[in-house]
Design a protein that fits this description.
With 192 residues, the chain is mainly α. It has eight helices and two strands; from the N terminus they run αααααααββα. InterPro entries: PTS_IID_sorb.
Length: 192
């Protein structure tokens, strides 16, 4: 019987600890994320969605802006999952790579910009809690996480470019490099 009582106390204690964490977040991280979201949405409205869309189309012109600059700015301003909507301004050839880079950036930016991907904030908070218990500040960790993430996200986008090119060649599909291009499959060439 003693085991059942201890199990029940542990079970209730688990939810009590969760409630304490929730109340702590309501006084700290939740208002911060809310204010960042309001600020970003206000900035988008001030700049104008058309200007942001035109910028995204121009940024797709080279590999650095396509897999480093565009995912960073898109994640910062539009957050996850809206950052992926900027991929519509890229030719079909670059969409998989942009998605890979943007998706990765949404994970590696939580330490500094928690509004980008608040659904996964618990991962960063778990790491930060361990750093805090060790008596270390979380700021340097957040900056390192962001910088390493930027480099790895860029490399991930570039490697996905190479992989997409390889698979396209293997499947005999020609993906256009321009927005007005058409996807051509080898079977269409044979029919014509």
């Amino acid at each position: 019987m003693n085991y059942v009582v201890k199990a029940a106390e542990w079970f209730v204690g688990l939810f009590q600890e969760g409630a304490k964490t929730f109340i702590d977040w309501m006084g700290s991280i939740v208002p911060l994320v809310l204010m960042l979201l309001i600020a970003m949405n206000s900035l988008i409205q001030l700049i104008g969605e058309d200007r942001i869309n035109k910028f995204a189309e121009k940024a797709g012109g080279n590999i650095v802006s396509r897999y480093l600059l565009l995912p960073f700015l898109g994640s910062f301003m539009l957050c996850n999952p809206m950052v992926h909507s900027l991929g519509r301004f890229l030719p079909e050839r670059y969409k998989p790579s942009y998605f890979a880079s943007a998706a990765q950036f949404c994970h590696t930016s939580n330490g500094i910009f928690p509004h980008i991907n608040p659904a996964e904030l618990f991962i960063w908070l778990g790491i930060a809690q361990g750093i805090t218990k060790a008596g270390l500040p979380t700021g340097p960790l957040a900056i390192r996480y962001l910088l390493v993430g930027l480099v790895l996200n860029f490399v991930g986008g570039w490697i996905t470019d190479l992989t997409t090119r390889y698979v396209s060649k293997q499947q005999r599909v020609t993906l256009p490099r321009t927005m007005d291009g058409e996807i051509v499959h080898a079977s269409k060439l044979v029919e014509a």
